[in-house]
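User: structure tokens for this one?
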Amino acid sequence: MDLIFRGREPRSGGQVLPQDVMFLGGVANLRTLKRNELEGAGRVTGRADLLLIDELGKLLHLPLPAWMPLQLGTFASTGAVWGRDPVTGAAVPTTRYQPNRDEYLSEVGVGLNWRVGIPEPLTAVRVEIAFPLGPDGRKPAYALAYQQPLNLLPPR
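Assistant:
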């Protein structure tokens, strides 16, 4: 695959090798798709998480032990792949470097986080349910994920 730079945005073109294919679906990006369900020559994804309740036990007046801090949150995510054959789903070469508006898939969901704190204090195990947005054939999906945030700030 060749990278062609025009202005500041790289654009992929040429032959798409199997190891260069971009996948969409699964816990890492869109939970309402099966893992790597869609593939293409290019991919774009975005996700926003909002922590609604920092300590669920205090809000519900439950005597949770100190080793079990539970949090309630919500999320929204969207993503698209382009340069794929609509019949087989296989990646095909493309000169485009962005998806069409109708290629985006979106979802919203809620989740329960248990901050296990090992090996880092912000490490969490998440149980989530995602609901698809839009008139396609996707169904709500459950997910279990292990999360370790990337912290680029120096410790205090």
